[in-house]
Design goal:
This protein is mainly beta. The chain is built from no helices and eleven strands. The strands form two sheets. Strands 2, 4, 5, 6, 9, 10 and 11 form a seven-stranded mixed sheet that branches. Strands 1-3-8-7 form a four-stranded antiparallel sheet, with no helix packed on it. β4 and β5 form a beta hairpin.
Length: 121
């Protein structure tokens, strides 16, 4: 069965950096579309960044220039390098996957990790 496990979250001061990891198993990782989402308390889950099997990358405007998504297919892992963190980046961060991307809506993704908390103060 498909499993996604995030790690790397934590607490950091504004301006700092964190690198999140998401290891996948139970599916053909290298050909799947991978995405990062986040959800702050009281807010809806929002798309942050995504990376397809051809390494085509897209970012939400709110993180463009600060966050970098990448993947290592040999390790079945997708990463999110977060630099110049702001208080408004505080959220639970989730990775998600699907075979083909048809929408960046959270409802379009059937497989999710458990999330990793990022707190920026």
């Amino acid at each position: 069965h498909v499993q996604l496990v995030e790690s790397g979250g934590g607490s950091v001061q504004a301006g700092g950096s964190l690198k999140l990891s998401c290891e996948g198993s139970g599916f053909a990782f290298s050909v799947y579309f991978m995405a990062w989402f986040r959800q702050a308390p009281g807010k809806e889950r929002e798309w942050v960044a995504s990376l397809d099997s051809r390494r085509t990358i897209t970012y939400a405007d709110s993180v463009k220039g600060r966050f970098t998504i990448s993947r290592d297919n040999a390790k079945n892992t997708v990463y999110l390098q977060m630099n110049s963190l702001k208080a408004e980046d505080t959220a639970m961060y989730f990775c998600a996957t699907r075979r083909y991307c048809t929408s960046m809506s959270p409802a379009a993704f059937g497989y999710w990790g458990q999330g990793t908390q990022v707190t920026v103060s």
